[in-house]
Write a structure and sequence with these properties.
heterodimer; A: 280 residues; mainly alpha; MetI-like fold; B: 71% helix
Amino acid sequence: MVTRRLIKRLLLYLAVLVFLFVCLFPFGWVLTGSFHSLAQIMEGQIHWIPKDPTLENYIPLFFSKMGIKNFPVYILNSLMIGCATAVLSSIIAALGGYGLSRYEFYGRDVLSRMMLFIYVFPVVLLALPINESMAKLRLVDSRLGIILIHTALAAPFCTWLLRSFFDSIPKAIEESAAVDGANKIQTLIWIVLPLAAPGVLTAAVYSLVSSWGEQMFASILISSDTMKTLPLGIAMYTSEQYIEWGQLLAGTVLTFVPLLLIFMPLSKHFLQGFMEGALK
Amino acid sequence: MNKKQATGLLYLAPVLILIIAFFLYPSISIIKTSFYQTRYGINFNFAGLKNYLVIFGDEVFHASLVNSLIWTVTGLILQLTIPLGTALLLNQRFGGNTFARATMLVPWITPSVIIAIMARWILEPELGMLNSILLRLGIVDDPINFLGSTTAALPTLIIAQTWQFIPFGTLLILAALQTIPRALYDAMKVDGAKPMQLFRYLIVPKISPMIGFMVFLAFVWNFNVFDKIWLTTQGGPVNATMTLPVLVYKRAFKTFRMGQSSAVGTITVVGLIILGIIYFKYLWKPIKQE
């Protein structure tokens, strides 16, 4: 009986490990590849643990005198656009989510559903007209233009997410704050928002993650090299004839690692936030 | 409308303005463009249904429609059944549970650009890991050009897409499974229920709202894929991976046929609206957590 349970236990762990391996091995393979020399890569001599690990793929990203010189600038651009998007979209979503949660008005449920429904449409359909509007507003090839688009892409989902967070905060808390003489905005900022902090954080992280990886609008709107974001930057190491594998892999690692560092500590909140949004 | 209602809408104003400017107005704009003949976005000439007639007679459009259907439906089936299996398997307490969950989210948050590069790196015919394993095991004699062959490219991308969804789908179903109290299982087992009966009468009713949500999520997520396809195959080889979103992009930004692109876009929007209305009217049931 005891051995049977032990075997069952071991099988479970084995299953978990296999599953996690399947989920993660491509990341590991890119990571280890980035520490191999170009010669080893081109001979297909990649090992899980590099025989003589090298930084030769990483150094040109930062100190190249020719070819692609602006990799650090791409990192900075992605960081600026991502953070601005995160701040802007969580503010907008907090207001919207609060409005949906606390006020009853005609069409509230329709609006609430719309926050999700709009994602039914492929964003690629929107690219052409948005490109034209941005040209009219002279926001082509600017960070502000990209920030606006990324905010528009993330904010409705975050609004939907935050509504459920606000719904789970009892109204009585606000009523007692009102009795103490706080006005609506004060109550929202000092009482409700701190209680919904995990939700707001989730919204901010979601916005940052989606902005960081967004490629299509960035590629349509940005033309000058110093405005490019990381997804556009690493794409420059590939062309139809030739792929600069060493630097491409190193660039991919540098694009993904910051995202993981920001996301992993918050992944629990993200999952919880998503579940609460989905389950309500 | 009283004052309180107006205040509620005021809170929603910023997000509504964004939706109008970046979703609603562009949607109307592409419908309009689809009836015009355009050159580089200017020189409008009313063209009536000409763009639509061209598109309906276009073999590439037919191929995209079929590919989109295959892409979405196969993806959906794989992405619902596999996570259901893994979730049932993993629905037990074990050490490192939190860590496992956090890691399972990683593929889901991975940007498409990175997925595309990973796929190209692993599937590369000459240098790739997968081909080297297949060759060494003697399963194939010549390397397979996974992304470069007309027969292999679409299934390969569907598998990559499914791989990305499985862990997240598993997490979603796990969350639904965990709302079932352990006592209910025990009670049914005491009454002599077999595993199949447990599945049919306890698990299925409890997780079906989550499955319904996942149908929506996975449908949208599959159908709308553009960048993963564009950055791996650009819809090729010979339109083997050309789906509707990829066609919309290619016609608009590579061959500059804005009118045709908009016509494909409009057909897509109308199709999706019909599907969306059916979904929200008949299938959408808000999930209640107990």
